[in-house]
Amino acid sequence: MQKSEIIEQKFTNFAGKIIVIPYIISIQMEQNLLRIAIQSKGRLYDDTIGLLKEAGIKINRSERALLVRSNNYPLEVLYMRDDDIPKTVAEGMADVGIVGLNEVMEKDENIKIVQHLGLSKCRLSIAIPKHAEYTGPQWLDGKRIATSYPHILKKFLKEHMVKADIYEITGSVEITPRIDLADAIFDIVSSGSTLVTNNLLEVETVMESDAVVVANKKMSTDKRKTLDELLFRFQAAIDAQKKKYVMMNAPKANVEKILSIMPESMKSPTIIPLADNEWCSIHTVLEEKCFWQIIGDLKKAGAQGILVVPIEKMVS
Ligand code: ATP
Ligand code: MG
Q1: Are 298 and 253 spatial neighbours (Cβ–Cβ below 8 Å)?
Q2: pTM above the 0.90 mark?
């Protein structure tokens, strides 16, 4: 859409008189400009910035700027605390956001999850003192549980018909049993090392979380197009991270054996002849985890000089 505006330009004529010439100019309104809310600092920040970079989006943030316009994509980045992202998106102050699924479920706002990014993976779990004898959710009956996620915990307790006292705290949750503030905790766990350090044992995993893209439920067609392109770029970056480009040399006589080792989905690799007539080079794309499973077999089948190269983008 175009918006018109009148501007005036002043000139001095040959007689020294000032004349004013009005101009009508039209301004192109950026109907497709999408505003994305992301964490300003913390555990999600690096993953989010890394993903935007891999998606080819340039953001030059000067220190402490809270709203920054990308100079090569119709995107405005709004920096904020992760707790505020679901509400900001629900109320339309931002069109989309990148936030942990844990926060989305806790805040329970009226927003749509449009993509799982598989980043910042963690889980929300109940943990109790190491030496207590856990007998199932009923163990929590009448106990005091410290958490920053009261809404999710309340739902879990209700599902298991457990009546417990929820002690809401915004940080240092894991310390509460040691100082007799709580009998158990409900908190984020990733490696579990924080629990071990605090003599706690994880007894229930209530939910798994990863970073997700959330969107306002009402979005114009123009913005939706910008979002679809963004999600497409994110997906290409995520897919590329999981895969590796693998090259190896092998005697031609062993090619069939090598191909039989490759997973079903990768059955048509590129085969390139080498200067030595008896040999060829095999190029293919493999899931990284699958590569480690079959590397021994590939070597046994005669593959040599195996090269594994990261893939920057993968568009299928
Ligand atoms: P803010 O100041 O923005 O409120 P915060 O202190 O609430 O930040 P962080 O500790 O930065 O939150 O964690 C942000 C999100 O990252 C969490 O909500 C969760 O989704 C994820 N996360 C937290 N801890 C881990 C972890 N150890 N490993 C992986 N992901 C994590
Ligand atoms: Mg937070």
Answers
A1: no
A2: no
